[in-house]
Amino acid sequence: MNEKNNKWIIHLVAHTHWDKEWYFTKQDSDILLNDNVNNLLNMLDNNEISNFTFDGQYSIIEDYIKYNPDNKTKIEKYVKDKKIIIGPWYTQPDFFNSGSESIIRNLLYGIKGCQSINSDYLKVAYVPDSFGHNNQMPQIYNSFGLNRFLYWRGISKKIIDNNGIINDWVGIDGSKILSYNLLFGYWPFGSYYPYLELNKSNINLKAKEFYENTKLMIDEIKNKSLGITNSILIPIGGDQAPILNYFNEFVNEINNLSNDQWIVSDYDTFFDNINISTNNLPMINEELRFPYLSRVHRTIGSQRQDIKYILKKLETELYLNLEPLMSYYFLIAKKYDKSFIDEIIKNILLSQAHDSLGGCNSDRTNSDIKNRIERSYDLVQSIETKILKIISKNVNLENESLLIFNTELFDTCHDYFVKIFTKHKYFNLEEKNGEIVNYSVIKSSYCESGMSVKPSINGEKVESLDGFYEHDILINDLKIDSLFFSVLNIVKKNEIYIDKYISNFKITLDKNMIVIKNNYNDDCYKIIFECTYDFGDSYDYSPKSFKTEEINTFLNSSIEHIIHNRLNISQITIDYLVPESEKKSKKILQKFFITIYEYENNKLTFNINTTNNSSELRWRFIILSPKELKSTFNDQCYSIIDRNHNEYLKTWEIDKWKEAPINIEPFEYICGVRNVFCIYSKFLNEYEMFDNNKFAITLYRSVSFLGKNDLLFRPGRSSGTSEYNLKTFDSRLINYNFDVSLTIDFNNNVNNLLESRHNIKNTLYYQNQNYNTLHKKFDRFLLKIPSIEIKSLGISLSNTDFIVKTFKKAEKTNDLIIRGFNPLDKDINLSLKNNNTNNNILFNVLDLNEDIKHINKNEILIKKNEIITISIKGDILDD
């Protein structure tokens, strides 16, 4: 604080925090939104309020305009004049369970949305309620031109005590952003504002009550700002808060009571006038995920696993398969279905708002979210099938032949899981040059119940169709050029040849324990399935006691080994008895079906299938390591982060944290222990290392309430609706069929994100067949096929260690965008090459808002965890 001026300047910001859905549906909130915005417009028309901040989201205004198109011009005027303040977000996201690229698209679509109505947006990275912040966000904010960060949740006691609430937050790559912590949150001051009671006759009385009720909180904010600034920020609002009547008059009355200067402000104005008195602010050098001041719900990553599973599946298919395929199609055909992509991404972003993605909602709301995601996945699959079918027809794909597409920007040699339909029981797969491709049959069945219906003069004419085989196969070591495809023909043969694969592992079963012995180094790993009571709710896991007690009783087990061509399979069944629920001691059967595939060097892929029959429990997949485990690493939001156990778990109760800072961590696709193993999965979200040699992946949780009071790991009021414990029957996941895969990679000193790519992506392929046209639903439609010259583009990255997260058409031009990052502990160089001409391809370097930073580069140096966005011309084939 400036010693020459003892008067504090207190910035009051009228706002609302707008959850689109929660214990209510989006339909409910849309009705309320309509009333609130109409009231705001009337007040602005009559100069009754200076400005109002709509939660840093653009999509709120988009929703309003959808129902009130006649008011669009008025909305545009007030947003442009900064009377209605929106953006930069599309929705307020979850930062640990959203995919990397979705977080960037959230800001991209939020800013683009504001610009679409010729309006400005909030220049502050405003995140009032999300459950913590990953430490790649400073780099992302900077690249969007955002240099101020305003938040509440996630700060630690150590930071508050040592640094206060104003800091420079330093990201994992070294990027820096000015950060201001809302010490008491976005809502407490609003809870003392008399929204519906205030009128001209009682305004002085209500202002005095507000001043007295908030004095201690304001004094504490002053205390945590001393020595840095004489300006403090007080948001006045709350969840779905109405517009503030008589706000200017209310502030004038407070000024009559206070020695400080209280002003009606907004977040941009506050940061513009914060008057920091030092050039060396304290720094935060870690992620913000500590539940000291407020809860961050460290185990929300495993709540409603069914929803998180389909959302991650959708993101993976969209960003890693569909958009690269559409980019290839755009280069050869100049067609790009952008409107469908916009719809899919907006549905993703709507579903990734912090409560929506958390799954901490009513059953009705979660049903809406799940349906929204499934509809979007249908769009993705249909667009994929349409493009692949057009390509296949233009290359005259033969009957029964299949086309497999490589969406990577480099040549690959991989194994591919595919389902094919053919009249042959035994067959060869042959490339166009006649070279035979190895494959393994995983499962086969014969289908002979089909019928065809044709019209005739006597009515319908029904004929039986010839039978056919359905084969699930694994194609081995198929080489495919960068951003191109391989065609495989099915050729009949009389018998199947078994080429025995030499195994790296010996897999056995010891009762309920899967024992994996490495044949090369004799390391012995053990796998168990752990079930414990979950006395928590839809926000947090909570055990019965601090000592974990397993409640699954082993019943019996079996194992069968199957050897296919280049593939070893171990099929395991383990039966347990578990309590029916927390309150019912009756034991019921829980069967686990585990299939272990060994087909890659020093890797094992586990498919885990079970149908949940109980509630109030948590299941985990636990690896018991022969080696001591000291620290972990995982990917998150365009970065790799190394983790040690946090230092606060021993003292959290003494220091009165809002929630136990347990060492359960989120991940996007990979997690593990360096030089021991790494796990790849697109289905799961959280892990824990404990007892020096155990590594657990949470499979799923089953709970019965949205919120509960007095949890062991979260004392006090329930989260959500604390006055009433809302039952959520669907969150028990009764009869939910849990079917996921994960891969354990025992290789050391590899780029795990690069290695994981093929394990997390579905095979992108099309088979020209008429046996089962329902396999890919869109394939059944009659489609007019445009004539297109299909060719290899030859575009290739010089460095495969650069992890591409998106390859898509630009938002503002017909250029194509490539975005990725460097996950290694060293700098890497990157260039683009045209393999057809052997020349380098010039590219522009962009910021995340897709504005040009550098033009016509042929190479770029990329630092550890640095995000790079480059663009190439959409007409590159015409050069």
TrEMBL record:
<keyword id="KW-0378">Hydrolase</keyword>
<dbReference type="GO" id="GO:0046872">
    <property type="term" value="F:metal ion binding"/>
</dbReference>
<keyword id="KW-0479">Metal-binding</keyword>
<dbReference type="GO" id="GO:0004559">
    <property type="term" value="F:alpha-mannosidase activity"/>
</dbReference>
<dbReference type="InterPro" id="IPR041147">
    <property type="entry name" value="GH38_C"/>
</dbReference>
<dbReference type="InterPro" id="IPR000602">
    <property type="entry name" value="Glyco_hydro_38_N"/>
</dbReference>
<dbReference type="GO" id="GO:0030246">
    <property type="term" value="F:carbohydrate binding"/>
</dbReference>
<dbReference type="InterPro" id="IPR011013">
    <property type="entry name" value="Gal_mutarotase_sf_dom"/>
</dbReference>
<dbReference type="GO" id="GO:0009313">
    <property type="term" value="P:oligosaccharide catabolic process"/>
</dbReference>
<dbReference type="InterPro" id="IPR037094">
    <property type="entry name" value="Glyco_hydro_38_cen_sf"/>
</dbReference>
<comment type="similarity">
    <text>Belongs to the glycosyl hydrolase 38 family.</text>
</comment>
<feature type="domain" description="Glycoside hydrolase family 38 central">
    <location>
        <begin position="295"/>
        <end position="373"/>
    </location>
</feature>
<dbReference type="Pfam" id="PF09261">
    <property type="entry name" value="Alpha-mann_mid"/>
</dbReference>
<dbReference type="InterPro" id="IPR011330">
    <property type="entry name" value="Glyco_hydro/deAcase_b/a-brl"/>
</dbReference>
<dbReference type="Pfam" id="PF01074">
    <property type="entry name" value="Glyco_hydro_38N"/>
</dbReference>
<dbReference type="InterPro" id="IPR015341">
    <property type="entry name" value="Glyco_hydro_38_cen"/>
</dbReference>
<protein>
    <submittedName>
        <fullName>Glycosyl hydrolase, family 38</fullName>
    </submittedName>
</protein>
<dbReference type="GO" id="GO:0006013">
    <property type="term" value="P:mannose metabolic process"/>
</dbReference>
<dbReference type="InterPro" id="IPR027291">
    <property type="entry name" value="Glyco_hydro_38_N_sf"/>
</dbReference>
<keyword id="KW-0326">Glycosidase</keyword>
<dbReference type="Pfam" id="PF17677">
    <property type="entry name" value="Glyco_hydro38C2"/>
</dbReference>
<dbReference type="InterPro" id="IPR028995">
    <property type="entry name" value="Glyco_hydro_57/38_cen_sf"/>
</dbReference>
